[in-house]
Amino acid sequence: MSKKSKNRLDRRRFLQASAALAGGVAVNPSLAAEDEKSSLMAPTVLGHLSRRAELPKARGARVVVVGGGWSGLTLAKYLKRFNPDFDVVLLDRKDQFVSCPISNVWMADQVDLEFLTHSYVDAARNNDYLFVNAMAIGLDRERRLLATTMGLIEYDYLVLAPGIDYDYGRIGVEDPDQEHYLRMHYPAGFASASEIMAIKHKFNQFDGGTLLLTVPAGNYRCMAAPYERACMAAAIMKKRGIQGKVLLLDMNPDIRIKADGFKKAFEDYYGDIIQYEPSAEISAVDTEGKAVETDFDSYAFDDAVIYPPVRAARIIEEFGLADPASAQFEAAIDLFKYNLVGDERVYITGDSRSQPFSKSGNTAHSEARYVAEVIAAHARGKEIPWRSPQTMCFSGVRIDPLESMSIIAFYKYDEAEKTFEFDRVHLNERWNPRAGQAGLAWAEGLYRDMFYS
Hints:
Radius of gyration: 23 Å
Oligomer: single chain
Low-confidence stretches: 1-46
Shape: globular
CATH class of the largest domain: Alpha Beta
Number of strands: 23
């Protein structure tokens, strides 16, 4: 079955079930039987789509937030803060939160896992909203129905904050078997806790040779993180006395952020370990021969962490919300209000939104607070002025004690160029232990904000 046919079938199945729910009639048995022949999962899917999720009755306008990352958690809390009458539901397929920000320094044992790990149940209880451990699988915007693995949920407002997916095709990996092999053996480490844990084990078990790390092109999650990760990997090797090198292949022509600081760290502290190669546009990965191909060279490795370019989470495209002009399949939204173009009841935030802001935790947190105000104002028939998100990023360079660099930046809109650019940038590329502790205090403060009242 072609992808187009499958999508058409899934949409037909969803509309049939939605119509049955709205009209109080059963799905046509012949159509159900036809669908069952097409997919072994059809009875299960139809079962979920033909009943409502068993949730407490909404006590006000229901706002459903899909995605329990930095953006979704912040939205859920501040929607209730800005409009206590909202009935807020946070939906995530994971049962606990593990932070991607600070995970690099966790790999180098500068914090413990408890520092990164938090409870969705605590967050929901402390901030008076409902957490549902389920996955979104369909959307009917006309009826304002979200299909989930627990059943249908009606909404007055819907916010999608589903994060990213990887785009392995952009590094020449089209075969599903090869992509799966890369995900299992050389995980990128920016989409799940399991990936992060696997990379920590990889760093601590590496026994010499060439450890390959990559930096993707485009707007990827946490601009500084791949360079920070190279420093942490080199610091671990240095601490363990491992003979080898970290080969950092950057698909960009230069270090994207804090360039002077990272270059100095590479040269001064890890000159005999880190080999930095810019403009390394990856065109293929030879998993059997353990080599990465670029337009001009081939790089052999003994072990690797391969971070491909990213795209918006596939749910954005599958729900028909992607901007056809977006190379990264990001959502077609109003750049200042974050609502889907033509629909002021659906909003997209975090790493799947289309603005070129940093895909970082602090950016997601600050813009989510703003979007919560936008939705609360819309419910009152009002509007609020646009406010720039804030990007704040601490990057570890050395360990024991942790020493970090930092940047704080805002954004402004260039009317002539019709694009956003940095504004009010405060950059500190002189790493020191004080900045290392400041980075941990920053993270602790935002965890406290998201998970406690």
